[in-house]
Amino acid sequence: MTRTRLEAFSDGVIAILITIMVLELKVPRGTDWQALRPLIPVFLTYVLSFIFLGIYWNNHHHMLHATERINGAILWANLHLLFWLSLVPFATGWMGENHVAPLPTALYGVFLLMAAVAWTILQATIIAHQGPSSKLREAVGGDFKGKISIAAYAAAIPLAFVRPWIAIALYVFVALLWLVPDRRIESKINR
Amino acid sequence: MTRTRLEAFSDGVIAILITIMVLELKVPRGTDWQALRPLIPVFLTYVLSFIFLGIYWNNHHHMLHATERINGAILWANLHLLFWLSLVPFATGWMGENHVAPLPTALYGVFLLMAAVAWTILQATIIAHQGPSSKLREAVGGDFKGKISIAAYAAAIPLAFVRPWIAIALYVFVALLWLVPDRRIESKINR
Amino acid sequence: MTRTRLEAFSDGVIAILITIMVLELKVPRGTDWQALRPLIPVFLTYVLSFIFLGIYWNNHHHMLHATERINGAILWANLHLLFWLSLVPFATGWMGENHVAPLPTALYGVFLLMAAVAWTILQATIIAHQGPSSKLREAVGGDFKGKISIAAYAAAIPLAFVRPWIAIALYVFVALLWLVPDRRIESKINR
Amino acid sequence: MTRTRLEAFSDGVIAILITIMVLELKVPRGTDWQALRPLIPVFLTYVLSFIFLGIYWNNHHHMLHATERINGAILWANLHLLFWLSLVPFATGWMGENHVAPLPTALYGVFLLMAAVAWTILQATIIAHQGPSSKLREAVGGDFKGKISIAAYAAAIPLAFVRPWIAIALYVFVALLWLVPDRRIESKINR
Fold first, then answer.
1. Is C141 helix (H, G, I), strand (E, B) or coil?
2. Pick from A10, A2, A8: which is nearest to A115 by CA?
3. pLDDT tens digits, residue range A136-173?
4. Residue B102 CA to its chain's centroid (Å)
5. pLDDT tens across D60-98, in order?
6. Mind listing the pLDDT tens digit for each residue in A16-42?
7. Tens digits of per-residue pLDDT, B101-152?
C-alpha cells in the first residue's frame, strides 16, 4: 500500500512536470513560418527534457518494482529526487529561449547532475533498507550507466562555458545511454 | 501492477493536458459581450481538443483493458503517444487565437496525425508483445477507423492552406467517427 | 478496475482545476495592505469555487461508490461533467477580477447550471445502466436537492443583470445546501 | 477503497501545488549571473515551501495509514487542509519576489498557521470517528510537535513586522522539527 502511494505521488509530479514544460512553448503572435522559427530551439529542448523525464519515470518504475518495503528515509530520498526534477522545466525554458547560451546550458547540466546524484542516493537508501539479500542491489550491480552519467554531466557543466554544443552533445549521449529501459533490473525480476 | 501504473501516469498526463488548455481561455479585460467575443474561436477549439483528448483517454482505457503484460517497448510507445498529445494544447491555443489561420490549422493536423501514428505504433507494440493469440489483435481487426483517421489528417494538412475550414471539417469528422467508444474491443472483452 | 480508473481520472481533473484557480491569485507588485486589497474579491470567489469543486468531488465519490459497472455512455457523461467544471476557473477569475460585474456573474451561473445538468445526466446514465434494482436510484429518490440547485442557478443567471449580489447569494445558498455530503446515498450504502 | 481515493486526491493536489510553485521561478531575460541573482530569494522560498509540502505529504501518508474508515466529516476536514495548503504557492511567490518583506512574510505564516490548525482538526476528526480504541490517538499522544508548531507560527506572524528574518527562522525551525517523519505513528503501526 505504502509503495503504491509513493509511486502514485511520483507519477503525479513527473506527469505535471512533463506537461508544465509545454507551457514554455508560448503561442506566437503571427501565423506564418517566421513566427514559428524562434520556437524551434524551445521545442528541441522540450523534446530533450521530455525524454529525460520519461527515462526517470521509466526507471523509477523498474526500481520500485524491485522494492517491497518503504520507510521514512526512502520517502525523503524520493522527494529529494523530485525536487531536482522539478527544476528541469525552468532550466529547459531558460536554455531553449536563449539559443543554448553558456550559463543556461550549464545550469541545465547542474540540475541533471543533482537529479542523477539524488537517484543514486535513493537507490542506495532502498538497498540499505532491503538488507543483504537486496534484489535491487543484485540488479544494479556496478551501476556502470549511473557512474558514466554523473561523469558526463560533471564534464558538461564546465564545457558549456567553452562550447555549449559540447555540453548538449553530452546530454544527448546520456539520454541515448538510458533510453533503453534498465534491462538489468527487468531481467532480474523476470527471472 | 505495472499496467496500473502505466494507466495512472497516462491518466495524469491527459488530465493535466485537458485542464492546461483552459489556461488559454485568458480572462478578458472588459465585462461586456464585446470582451467575450474574441474568446469564441478559442472556446470552440477548446471544445474540439477536449473531445479529441477525451476520445484518446476513452480508447486508451479500452486498449489497456485488453492488455495483460507490459514491457519496456510498450512504456516508450505510450510515452511517444503522450508526447504528441502534449503538443495539442499549444496548437489549440495558436489556432484558436488566430481565427483558424492556415498554418496553425495545418500544425494542429500535424500533431493529430502524429498522435494517430503513435497510437497505431502503441497498438502494434502491445499486439506484438501479446503474441499470436492476442486478444487486442482480434478486437482491432482491420483497424478501419484508425486508417480512415490517418488518411483524413494527411488530407487535412495540405487542405488547410487552401481553405482552413475544410481541414476543420475533416477534424470534426474524425472526432465524430471516434466519439462512440471502440465497441470492437468492448464486445470482445465482454464476450 | 474500470471504475477505479474513472475515479482516478476524475480526481486528477478536479484536483488540477482546484489548484489551477490559485494561479488567478496573481502575486501583487507592492508589499503593503493596499497591494492586497484588489485580491480580496478574487480570493472570495476562489473560496466559493473551491467549495463548489469540493462538493462535486465529494458527491462524485459517493455516487461512484454506489456504481458497480461502467460503460461507454457513463465514461462520456462523466467527461461531459468534467468539461463544464473545467470552465469554472475561467469564470471564477473573470468574476473575481471584475468585482462581481453582471455578465461575469451570470456566466459563472451558466457554467454551474451546465455542470448541474451534466451531473443529472451522469446520474441518470448510471441508473439506466444499473437497471431496475439500481442502488443509486433508490438512494437519489426524488433528487430534491438537484432540482432546487438547477432552479436556483436558472434564476440567478437573469438576476445577475439586475443585481449581481442576488445571484451570488443564490450560489452561496446552493453551496450551503450541498455542503453536507449526500447522506441519502451514504445511508443506503451503509445499510 | 474510500481511503484510497482520499489519498489519491490529496496526493494529486499536493503534487500539483509543489510543481505549480516552480512556475514562480520565471525564466529570466538575460543569460548571465546577473540575470539569475534576483531569483535566489525566490529559489530559497521555493525550497522552504517544497519542504513544508513534503512534510505534509509525508505525515498525511502516515496519518491515513492509521485510519481504517472515512466519513463525510473527514472528507471535508481534508479538503479544508488542502485549501490552506493551496494558498502556500501564492504566499511563496509574494515573499520570494519581495526579498522577504514584512507583510508577505507574515501572510506566509498565516497560511502555515491555518494549515497547521486544519491538520489538527483533521486529526481530531479521524480520532473521533475511530472511537475510544483509536490507533491514531494512541500514536499522536500529547501532540507535542503539533502544539509547538502552532505556537511558533503564531509568534512568527507579529514578529515578521519587527524583523522578517525572525519569522523565517521560526519557519525553518518548525520545518526541521517535522523533517523527521512522525516516528510516533510509524512505531505504533509497526508494533
1. coil
2. A10
3. 887 777 788 889 999 999 999 999 999 999 999 999 99
4. 20
5. 888 888 787 888 889 899 999 999 999 999 999 999 888
6. 999 888 888 888 888 888 888 889 989
7. 999 999 999 999 999 999 999 999 998 988 887 878 877 777 888 899 999 9
pLDDT digits (tens, 9 = 90+) for B26-57: 888 888 888 888 899 899 999 999 999 999 99
Select the residue of A72, A79, A97 nearest D27 (Cβ to Cβ): A97
ipTM greater than 0.85 = yes
Q: Say if B16 is an interface residue toward chain A (CB within 8 Å).
A: yes
Residues of B with Cβ-Cβ distance to A61 under 8 angstroms: 2, 5, 75
Q: Is the pLDDT of residue C99 over 70?
A: yes
Q: Which of the pair, A9 or A2, is modelled with greater confidence?
A: A9
Record the pTM.
Answer: 0.89
Q: Is B22 on the interface with C (CB under 8 A)?
A: yes
User: How would residue A113 be classed by pLDDT, with cut points 50, 70 and 90?
Assistant: very high
3-state helix, strand, coil in chain A (%, to 5): 80, 0, 20
Among candidates D33, D61, D179 on the partner chain, residue whose Cβ is nearest the Cβ of A103: D33
Cα–Cα nearest to B171, from B50, B58, B81, B48: B48
Length of chain C: 191
Chain B residue with CA closest to A14: the answer is B9
Q: Which of C9, C71, C102 is opposite residue B57, by nearest beta carbon?
A: C9
Between A72-86 and A88-97, two packed helices, what is the crossing angle to 10 degrees? 10
Contacts of D75 in chain C (CB under 8 A): 58, 61, 181
Contacts of C among chains (3+ CB pairs under 8 A): B, D
**Do D23 and C25 lie within an 8 Å CB cutoff?**
no
Backbone dihedral angles phi then psi of residue C171, each to the nearest 5 degrees: -60, -45
Chains in contact with D, where contact means 3 or more Cβ–Cβ distances below 8 Å, are: A, C
Q: Give me the torsion for CA of B171, B173, B175, B177, rounded to 10°.
A: -150
Cell (9 digits) for D115: 494549515
Rounded average pLDDT over B71-86 = 92
- What's the rounded Cα separation, in Å, for the pair A29 and D116? 45
The full DSSP string for C11-66 is HHHHHHHHHHGGGGSPPPSS-SHHHHTTHHHHHHHHHHHHHHHHHHHHHHHHHHHT
Among B160, B63, B190, B44, smallest CA distance to B119 is for B63
Q: Are residues D171 and D156 in contact, defined by beta-carbon separation less than 8 angstroms?
A: yes
Neighboring chain A residues of D181 at a CB cutoff of 8 Å: 72, 75-76
**Does the structure show a pLDDT above 90 at A90?**
yes
Average pLDDT over residues D153-169: 95
Measure D154 CA to nearest chain C CA, in Å. 19
C104: cell is 461575469
Q: How confident is the model at residue B191 (pLDDT cuts 50, 70, 90)?
A: very low
State which amino acid sits at residue B53. L
Q: Report which of D59, D183, D51, D187 is spatially closest to residue D126, judged by C-alpha positions.
A: D59
Enumerate residues 100 to 119 of chain C having a beta carbon within 8 A of any beta carbon in chain B. Answer: 101-104, 107
Using a CB-CB cut-off of 8 Å, the residues of chain B touching A50 are 79, 83, 86
- Rounded Cα–Cα distance for residues D167 and D105 (Å): 7
CB-CB neighbors (< 8 A) of D97 in chain C? 27
Which of A72, A89, A102 is closest, CB to CB, to D22?
A89
C-alpha to C-alpha distance for B9 and A94, rounded to whole angstroms? 27
Q: Do C61 and D101 touch (CB under 8 A)?
A: no
Domain locations along chain B: 2-190
Read off the pLDDT of each residue in A77-94 and give the average, rounded to a whole number: 94
d(CA B136, CA C108): 44
CA within 13 Å, CB half, C173? 17
Which residue type occupies C98? N
